Amino acid sequence: MRFRPVCLCLLFLLCLIPALPRAAAAQVGATDGAVWIQIEAQPTFAAARDRAQAWSALFPQTGGFRLRSGWYAVMLGPYPEAEARARLADLRQDGLIPGDSFIAFEDDFGPRYWPPANQTPTLPEAAPDPGPEVAPEVAAADSEPLLLVLPDETPAEARDSEVLLPPEDRRDLQTALQWFGFYDGDIDGAFGPGTRKSMAAWQEAQGMLEPSGVLTSRQRADLTQAWRDEIATFGFAEVVEAEAGITLTLPLGLVAFESYEPPFVQFRPLTDQAPRLLLISQPGDQAALSGLYDLLQSLELVPLTGERSRDDRSFRIRGTSASTDTTVFAELTGGFIKGWMLVSAPGQAQRDARIIDRLEASFATDSARALDPGMAILSDDTRAGLLTGLDLRKPRLSRSGFFISAEGAVLTTTEAVTGCGRVTLDRTTPAEVRLSDAASGL
Questions:
Q1: How big, in percent rounded to 5, are the helix, strand and coil portions of the chain?
Q2: CA distances in angstroms from 341 to 277, 304, 319, listed in the order given
Q3: What is the pLDDT of residue 46?
């Protein structure tokens, strides 16, 4: 009669065992609920032990574990997860650990090898074959800490490690894919068909990678680091230009404020390859907007070839030539004309498109203020054209003509217009050739 309670007790235990948290199987010395910062990995135990010993001189909390891939990881920790993420960010920013360091979870660890028990290694010198050898990228002896290539993973291992990614890391991956033009969906951290397709496209674009749609740990690190490096290069930051009444995001890693020269706020390039950027701000009406449109096209910085569009409230100019690629936008609102101009060299289309995207998305104006035309001392000619600091395009040829109709038709010689890309009256009013008579030369 005692048989049934024993069975019930055994069944009860069998039901409980699968429900135990995975942390209960963590290695000796690990802390429940804590995470680690993985700073590097080595393919052999001997190399990992030496590196862990070196890191211990800087960080007493250095630990080492063997990974499922057969490699040996060097870790810092353990820490509560929130503290680990804050410490990871601080150490990266200070350059004390490699830039591709990341949060690691104890469930993914094998046996612990550092610190060694009683100061003697508990693992054999000869580790199982980890597969194809991956050569570490070793920095110079007197440079920053070693930046080592993370071990690659099988598709199954990649999926396992992907499951452990926190939501912010998943969103970062989507943002990085979007930045490089592979993803156009929502930044929600959900890896659906759209994200998988973009991951496969990124893998294919790298060459020599199987477009599986699942990124390995190394590929994730490469993608997000490349994105962060580009963001750092651009140095995007919100700028509130109070004098001009304009707020927008500018690439302050590429340009710096230079001067106020109404109607422009000029930002100079910081390097030879960087663009030049100007903000436009002036009082005006529709006639002034139309006049500005014509005047800007008389600048050397605005090539004549390219798309143009305008209406009563705004205009856009795209000028391209062998030496210059310029985009201009201006709009009329509340009695003020506000806009921007990006001047670059050809061959920077991808970079400039990212800058223009930020300019357009962030451009906001103060409807009560514009750049004061009297804040800079201008010559009479410059004040008339509001083009201080910028070179006007010099006409190739200038000839006289006569108005011959009330509608504004002008009679001149064929010599005056032959071969001209753009014809203007008094440099500002655009004109077009409607009739040319070779016999008379008119």
A1: 35, 25, 45
A2: 6, 15, 11
A3: 83
Rounded Cα distance between 40 and 431, Å, is 67
Q: Which residues contact 302 (CB under 8 A, 6 or more apart)?
A: 296, 317, 319, 326, 328, 341, 393
Contact partners, residue 249, CB within 8 Å, separation at least 6: 236, 237, 238, 239, 358, 359, 361, 362
Higher local confidence (pLDDT), 377 or 297:
297
Contact yes or no for 112/27 (Cβ under 8 A): yes
d(CA 357, CA 175): 15
- Cβ partners under 8 Å of residue 192, min gap 6: 185
Q: Encode pLDDT of 27-79 as tens digits.
A: 333 445 689 999 998 878 888 888 898 888 889 899 999 887 778 889 999 99
**CA gap 148, 48 in Å, rounded:** 12
Kindly calculate the radius of gyration of the chain based on its CA atoms and give it in whole angstroms. Answer: 32
Is 0.85 surpassed by the pTM of this model? no
Whether omega before 18 lies within 30 degrees of 0, making that bond cis, reads no
pLDDT surpasses 90 at 176 = yes
How crowded is residue 244: how many other Cβ atoms within 10 Å of its Cβ?
A: 25
Identify each DSSP E strand in 92-226 by its residue range: 102-105, 109-114
Separation between Cα atoms, residue 355 and residue 252, nearest integer Å: 11
Confidence of residue 380 (pLDDT cuts 50, 70, 90): low
pLDDT tops 80 at residue 244: yes
Name 112's Cβ contacts closer than 8 Å, sequence gap at least 6. 27, 28, 29, 30, 63, 64, 65, 66
CA 145 to mean position of chain CA atoms:
25
